[in-house]
Design goal:
about 525 residues, Phosphatase 2c, domain 1, elongated, single chain, 3 domains, Beta-Lactamase, alpha+beta, 6-stranded antiparallel beta sheet
Length: about 525
Amino acid sequence: MVVDDVEPNRRVLAAWLAAAGYVVEEAASGAEALARTAAGGVDLVLLDVDLPDRSGLEVCRAIKGDPATASVPVVELSATYVEAAHRSAGLRSGADGYLTEPVTREELLASVEAMLRYSAARRRAERLAARLERLNVATLEISRAERLGELVAACAEQSAAVVGGRAVVVAAADGQAALARTGLGEVTAVDEQPVVPAALGASRFPPSDEPYSVHTRHRLDRSGAPAGFEAGRSYRVVAVRAPRGDGRAVVGVEVAAGDAEEVREADLVLRQVARALGVALGNLHALRVERSLVLKLQRSLLPGDLPAVAGLELAARYVASAEHAEVGGDFFEVVELPGGRVGVAIGDVQGHSLDAAAVMAGLRHWVLAYALEGHRPASVLTRVNRLLLRNHPELIATACYGELDLSTGRLVLANAGHVPPIVSDGGGARFLWARGVLLGVEGPPAVELDMVLADGTTMVWVTDGLVERRGEALGAGLERLRSAVAAGAGPEVRLEQLCDRLVRLAGAPTTDDVAIVALRFDRRRQAPDGR
């Protein structure tokens, strides 16, 4: 509390306030009062209207005009300006109260008590309103999480931001568990574990969704607080159950022991956070179930086992995007053709949807049908493009198709806007560039590339999910792929190992679907198993 000390009787007022238990600081001028109030920690200003350096009304307006001090109650005091007009002018300057002297001790203390009650109620209301507003942001951020680790981190961060203190979240779902602990302005610590903490087990899980208090003594407290709640602290905790699946969680926020108002507000926050977390856990379960079904559908549209062909080593991979629950449009095909030839196709239909998957399945079978009819690679892609333009004019796709004559090593390749394949032989690893427009776009037929592969040559076809990264030029991804093939395509490396290495280039989790086909040509390899 700041009291302006401009007359001896102000010392009497300060003494009354100090005797009543208030901490009083005296300011000798308006400038000093402003500086002290701006420094913070002031609950009330008792301000003389007639100050030696400026008008008290001016000082009051300055206090109320600063957002940092506007909520500090100001009581103006005067022994000179005692008329009704003076009191009106004082209140219009922003003062919360106006006293005229002489003032009795009882009147002074009663006025101060009333102003402090009003100020405390106002601060609580403003704090609660800010927390409720922040809860809207918290709910949105929690709902955006797509994995359990992301979910507990978002919940902990948002809970800490709302209450302005420490928060702990422990959650388990579908046999996985994660813990996040954070404080306002601190880096969130996230720990994902394959083992569900005992405190989240069904036998110990609290039956009620109502918040309760936890005073931690150990890492696993007798009250059921799981690891992550810091010892020697007091928390308000709420248990969460997902409406779908087996998701369970505990959310705790630190509170000041014995502060009933803080506990009440913390409980309000926890109930809202618990609802959002429960819904998010249920959504994650539904997403996992949906994703599992989608992957089964996706794989059913792709070829099963690769053919066993003398003179060839083959390997392939398909990795679904971690960011999409929908079916993707990546495909590949390896087929034995008449006359001792093998056809290899790879492609990508724009988008992630059932429509994209349906078109993908169509493209794969169109390529296969035209290849089996005996058409050359450029003719295969031209005919496929006609069908796509006729049946799905709204979609575009890329594809690359090549045929290898196993008796001569002759490769004929055509490309329709796809990532070029890589060949690795004694001359190093390089891309095979063949010009051709995208499928779904009118244009000239693809230009065929005709070359002969030496024994021991490795070829790799990929989709763009392996090379494209957000915020990075495509050339950097292509060079990363080329370098990986150059380093890992030696004759001593099995193609299964090479595919595994290339999958890791996409990063984890993958942001797009990835398809890979690897081929090693060697006429000395007569048995499909390499013996």
